Amino acid sequence: MSKNDLLLTPIEKGSFESFAKGLVPLLPLIEDPSVSEIMVNNHKSIWIEKNGRMEKTDIEMVPSMIRMGIQFLSSAVGNKDAIAGTSTGIVNAAYSGMRIAAVMQPTAIDGDAICIRKHSKTNRTPAQYIANGSFDIEMIAQDKRYVHEQIKPRENLQNEELVNFID
């Protein structure tokens, strides 16, 4: 049981479990440790971030299942009356190491949408992003000055590490 699970009432936890069951085609992606983000742009456009790269999947879903998943998610976070086309039709939640955002049509113009971001247990290094093809060191190195202007070291070690890596 995760820290986030402890904050849920049994009814809320049941709603999250129903949310997951409503999105059965996505469960293998949720369970895959190499997938860090799942983006359901609509029932026919589902993308993932896998090993730092964006990929379109072949998965298609029934639109009503996406809507049902959003409504269960909404119930789980205390928004009992999710209504499409209103501010209550936009749902944000955190559960079991994931950040979940959902929006209903017509606010989401191409159909109901869900984004599931799985929190990583470790941070990737710039070298790992390059090795995965997420970005190309040669393209970055072409204009070091631009990179230095855009990525200013602050209190964040990863930004400093990236700037040092580029130099």
Q: Can you walk me through this structure?
A:
The protein is an alpha+beta fold and 167 residues long. The protein folds into two domains: 4-118, Beta-Lactamase; 126-166, no CATH class. Helix content is 36%, strand content 22%. It is built from seven helices and six strands. It has a six-stranded antiparallel sheet with strand order 3-2-1-6-5-4. The chain starts with 9 loop residues before the first helix and ends with a helix.
C-alpha-based Rg, rounded: 19 Å
Q: CATH topology of the largest domain, what is it called?
A: Beta-Lactamase
Task: Write out the strand line-up for the largest beta sheet, numbering strands in chain order.
Answer: 3-2-1-6-5-4
Number of domains: 2
> Helical amount among residues, as a percent range?
25-40%
Q: Report the end-to-end length measured between terminal Cα atoms.
A: 43 Å
Low-pLDDT windows of residues: 1-6
CATH architecture of the largest domain: 2-Layer Sandwich
Contiguous helical run count: 7
Overall mean pLDDT score? 76
- How would you describe the oligomerization state of the chains in this entry? single chain
User: Order of helices and strands, N to C?
Assistant: HHEEEHEEEHHHH
Main beta-sheet annotation: 6 strands, antiparallel
